[in-house]
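ok trying this again, last paste got cut off
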Amino acid sequence: MGIDTTFNSIEGRKPDFFITAYDTYSRVTKWFTTGQLNTGIYATPGGQNFLRWVKEQNLWEICTASASAPTFFPPYPISLTSNDQLPHIDGGISANNPSLSVIAHVLRDRNIKLEDISMLSIGTGKTTKRFDYKTIKGWGSVQWGRNVPHIFIDPASNNGEKICKCILNSVSNKQINYLRLDFNLNKQLKGEPDFQQTREPLKKPYNEYLMKKYKKQYMEKHKKGSQENMNKWSEDEWVKELEKKIKADNGKKLNLTVTEDIDDFESCSSLKEVTELYIDYSSVRDQIREFITHNPPIN
């Protein structure tokens, strides 16, 4: 596919595309899709006009509009006519996890039954920065505005995940028909999640999979050491020991924390590393294998 690839030119290819972008002029979330659609809203003259307009658009322009996150990128104008444009911004503003939108789309516009839907949803890492009462009680509009990405994006995504899982599991006899793959960028609190009480914060947050990588290396190197004592170390003790030993061995400071600033483009390499470690040090491969076993692809 090249720069002149339009939605119309990829019609009939698999898989179908479903891309969201928010139209700030019309104040609606646009669903840019491929496939023959003639039901629901697309059965109306207005719906057919919209489809014709979508199929004329360049794929790269729709993707640019969908990724135009406010404060980081300007809105992207998609042309209606030679003299008229509609500004679009990141579809994540209204559908950061588009799973619910996809389910609604295939139910309404593809004549697919709910019990026949299986979904594999892939996230990009969840922010975990803590905001306690003392910190936020005095915030004004500026402070709330600066922290919108940290506070307001993930909750809608997490809620959409739970709703999708409840809906799909309620109508299917399959053991697994919804799988969400995602991970916390960092661990901020001691112990395991407990919503009955406030957990004590760690002295230093860390990424779980970076910790597993370096912990494994450390234990292999010190096999003759006090393994029994190592198994008793707390999370804070492990972070302190690993930072000390890695620096002593390599002369470089070890950072077990992943940046959660979404405008930090220099963090891409570390995010790529922890994503690969997430695949290597978690049960992701087994989960995907089991999902495919219960939901074989349909030709």
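PB: full thing came through this time. The longest helix spans residues 153-171.
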